[in-house]
Specification:
The complex is a heterodimer of chains A (365) and B (498). By secondary structure, chain A is an all-alpha fold. In chain A, 73% of the residues lie in helices and 0% in strands. The radius of gyration of chain A is 21 Å and the shape is globular. The two termini of chain A are 19 Å apart. Chain B is built from 17 helices and 12 strands. The N and C termini of chain B lie far apart (82 Å). Classes of the chains: A mainly alpha (365), B alpha+beta (498). At the A-B interface, helix 6, helix 7 and helix 14 of A face helix 16 of B.
């Protein structure tokens, strides 16, 4: 049976909210607007809602799989496919999590290079970031949870900046509602589902929750909150920019923050980008932590060793991705993989798992 | 001294020879009215000679009968703390604590140990908590003598639930260390942890409780103090009441206590002596002071090195004007001033009070003004550095304010390298560090993480006494309830005075 984690390493149930929300909100929030408007245009805020709602079903599947009794993805794989194939699939999942972490890591460095330090080398920033990521992860899951808690609470001050663009809002930009076909809205939904990926790490860290059975409401709450934040940002972007402008704006959220002005601060986007470090840290750290966890369970490699290996891998790859187009391509690739992982693999796994479980049950009696 | 006892397995009699190597070890003999000689051995430096001449010798010398046995002799000694021993270890132990050893010719291996120690000679009598001063409230502070401190605490908490446990540590000092806690409030797990850590401790001489602090702390590499250390009586009592375990060391006026959280270091007893709104305001000012003190200079360096664009145009002009003649990059300029301030502080701390004050004026005004006129630094930086130094001194606990002042320097370097990104990186690093720290196994960042909603009413602000009726939950006291609040019904219900 799954060995129970020691009580002192567990985190309170309501932290599931912060873990899920922080693993979702990351670099996507800065630039998702011009990917989602490709099909549904000014109606794509509906797509954001649809995508958010559809993910509740996926989350429900995940929660159904991992609870009663509490287990993680490794165990599920083993139940569904047997020990060998199951472990092999888990190793593939490592690659997926690595991809998630790498994308956020490299994109954030890209943002800094574009907006703040055009001349700075990638390896320099990567090294700085890598140090702090290693420091967080070696602190264990409790420290990770702490960072995702603070990474939600502290940057929420930035929500205030959303007030400034409202002064220049043009609400007619949203009219007419439902101007696009259902297909277009669906296509936009597919595009916008990508900003939500990251919450599937719950599959790995679920056994670290103190009262797993009570975590469902927090998990769904986190998803709903993320949807709300994305919806808010989408709507404000739409009323601030016209669709034509938006098509040619690369980082709409950052451009919006440019208009924030205080008597002592201009170029507020600098502060926004720096504070965003706290937001992206959990998005990078949680997947990497999951990688080390899977490796430890399957191959008995010490987390410290695997962490350094993974970190140097990420460093190396992010140095090789040396221009904008490659960063873009990486983002697109990850989105594609993430989409199929969430909407195909998890439901598939759920179906196989349900069949397996009913078989196991009937054989018991 | 223990060594030669072990080596030769000596008797008391053989030890005398070894002991008399030291010139303050005295031996003499006297007789009763009619009897054989009685021998006295003691360290002159440790005993109270007046006591010996007035309360010991006369009774022995004037005794009428012959002392056949030690017990006969013991009966005539009018001092409570006395015992018969033949154990060399006990003998040495007591002798070095100010006991006098009396034996008869017949019994060279066995004698009476009588306590004649001169108590608190050489210690100061009172301490008015100068280092943690408060305008309102009692100013009683602890002194170096352990027993005085204990009696101060006992007189404030008269309940018999106040328990002290004694340890003796230090292979050369045999320092008495006391663990104190309130039975029924303090969590037994914390008491056990503290006990265990003290038992495992090995040290030659324990000079001060801050040495204990470093040895028994959960992480000895952190710049943050993991145990509260205070010289104030009221603060110590309050900590006991919250369920913390205190450690008092003989020879140290500072008491350390744990488990503690970082927020308690910014609490001053004065917060509770003022009305809650004013107390809260002062506490908030302190927190703002900390942020300012850590961040002001790094932000200055970051902005002026990398992010000129962040400054509005109107503010840019005075900034450029004041820096126009300065030939150094902001990093050097900031380091120069910061180190000057640190030098002033360090010199002020090493000098007598009056000289220190003069030096402060000379340093602050003359050097500062001259540095600006010589175009070594800018006016604005001078203001920032002076203010942040001032802000760091608002922290009530000295150890914490030292930490805060030190944290600034790595941040200044990071700011010079990576600008705002460096500052955020450094701050996040500090945050992670705080998340990882523990004090006696309790998270250091409580009640923020792990989040304890109920404890927030006395953290950043200090709520009214009618609200804070419960103890902090993060210390895990056995009893949460502190006191009852009675509402004045007549005022509450009736606004019309009918």
């Amino acid at each position: 049976m799954e060995q129970k984690n020691q009580d002192k390493y567990l985190v309170s149930t309501f932290f599931v909210f912060f873990l899920i929300h922080s693993s979702q909100t990351g670099i996507g929030l800065l630039s998702f607007q011009n990917t989602i408007i490709e099909n549904a245009g000014h109606d794509s805020w509906i797509s954001v809602i649809i995508a958010g709602l559809s993910l509740h079903i996926i989350l429900w599947m995940i929660l159904k799989m991992v609870s009663n009794p509490t287990k993680d993805l490794l165990k599920i794989h083993q139940i569904c496919f047997g020990e060998k194939i199951g472990d092999f699939l888990s190793v593939i999942v490592i690659g997926y999590f690595l991809l998630l972490a790498l994308t956020v890591f490299r994109t954030y460095i890209d943002v800094i290079q574009i907006w703040v330090f055009p001349m700075i080398k990638t390896w320099e920033l990567s090294l700085g970031l890598a140090c702090i990521i290693i420091y967080i992860i070696t602190g264990g899951f409790r420290t990770l949870t702490g960072i995702s808690f603070l990474g939600v609470v502290l940057p929420s001050i930035l929500l205030v900046t959303l007030y400034f663009p409202l002064q220049y809002a043009n609400f007619r930009n949203l009219m007419p509602v439902l101007d696009h076909s259902i297909l277009e809205i669906a296509q936009s939904s597919k595009a916008s589902s990508l900003i939500y990926i990251g919450f599937e790490t719950l599959l790995i860290y679920f056994p670290f929750i103190k009262y797993p059975s009570k975590s469902a409401k927090w998990a769904h709450g986190a998803l709903a909150y993320t949807t709300f934040i994305y919806l808010l940002v989408t709507l404000i972007t739409f009323v601030y920019f016209s669709q034509g402008q938006l098509k040619h704006t690369l980082w709409p959220t950052l451009v919006i923050t440019k208009i924030v002005e205080f008597p002592f601060i201009e170029r507020f986007e600098f502060i926004f980008i720096f504070t965003w470090l706290l937001v992206i840290l959990p998005t990078v750290c949680i997947p990497i932590w999951c990688c080390t966890r899977i490796l430890k369970k399957i191959t008995k490699i010490k987390p410290r060793k695997s962490l350094y290996t993974i970190m140097s891998l990420i460093l190396l790859i992010s140095i090789f991705i040396d221009d904008r187009l490659k960063v873009d391509a990486l983002g697109k690739f990850t989105s594609e993989v993430g989409f199929y992982y969430i909407y195909s693999y998890i439901p598939l796994l759920f179906i196989i798992f349900s069949i397996r479980k009913s078989k196991l049950k009937s054989s018991e009696y | 001294m223990w060594n030669f006892i072990k080596q030769k397995n000596n008797s008391i009699h053989d030890l005398f020879e070894e002991l008399s190597k030291s010139d303050d070890f005295y031996q003499f003999s006297t007789r009763s009215v009619h009897g054989s000689p009685i021998y006295f051995s003691y360290y002159k430096s440790l005993i109270d000679e007046k006591k010996m001449h007035h309360h010991l010798l006369p009774y022995i010398q004037s005794a009428e009968k012959e002392f056949e046995e030690l017990s006969d002799l013991m009966n005539v000694i009018p001092i409570d703390e006395r015992e018969i021993t033949s154990d060399a270890k006990v003998f040495i132990n007591k002798l070095t604590k100010g006991y006098i050893f009396i034996h008869l010719t017949k019994t060279p291996e066995k004698g009476i140990l009588v306590n004649l120690s001169n108590g608190t000679k050489g210690y100061r009598d009172f301490n008015d908590a100068e280092n943690e001063y408060s305008v309102i409230g009692p100013k009683v502070g602890f002194v170096e003598d352990l027993d005085t401190n204990l009696s101060l605490l006992r007189r404030q908490i008269t309940s018999d639930d106040l328990i002290f446990e004694e340890f003796t540590k230090g292979s050369y000092s045999n320092t008495r260390i006391m663990i104190g806690y309130i039975d029924g409030i303090a969590n037994p797990q914390h008491i056990q942890t503290m006990r265990q850590r003290l038992e495992d401790l090995d040290m030659d001489v324990i000079f001060d409780s801050s040495i204990l602090d470093q040895i028994i702390s959960d992480n000895s590499n952190t710049p943050f103090p993991l145990f509260m250390s205070t010289e104030r009586l009221d603060r110590t009592t309050y900590m006991l009441l919250l369920g913390q375990v205190i450690v008092i060391t003989d020879g140290s006026p500072y008491v350390i206590a744990g488990p503690t959280s970082i927020f308690q270091f910014f609490v001053s007893p004065e917060d509770y002596y003022s009305p809650w709104s004013i107390g809260s305001f002062f506490r908030l000012i302190r927190f703002i002071g900390v942020l300012f003190s850590i961040l002001a200079t790094p932000i200055y360096v970051a902005v002026l090195t990398h992010h000129y664009a962040i400054i509005p145009q109107d503010l840019l002009t005075p900034l450029i004007m004041s820096r126009a003649n300065v030939p150094f990059p902001p990093l050097l300029e900031a380091l120069f001033l910061e180190i000057t301030i640190e030098l002033l502080r360090e010199a002020g701390a090493r000098l007598p009070t009056k000289v220190g004050q003069t030096l402060g004026i000379v340093g602050g005004i003359v050097i500062g003004q001259a540095a600006v006129q010589a175009a070594l630094t800018s006016n604005i930086l001078l203001i920032i550095v002076a203010l942040s130094a001032l802000a760091s001194f608002t922290t009530p606990i000295f150890k914490m304010s030292n930490t805060i002042r030190t944290l600034r320097f790595p941040l200044i370097f990071l700011a010079a390298i990576w600008g705002g990104f460096g500052v955020t990186l450094g701050l996040t690093f500090i945050l992670c560090h705080l998340l990882r720290l523990k004090s006696l196994g309790t998270p250091y960042l409580a009640p923020v993480y792990p989040f304890r909603y109920k404890d927030l009413n006395d953290s950043f602000i200090r709520s009214s006494l009618s609200v804070t009726t419960k103890r902090y939950t993060f210390i895990r006291p056995l009893k949460l309830h502190r006191y009852n609040v009675k509402k004045h019904k007549d005022i509450e219900d009736d606004y019309n005075n009918e």
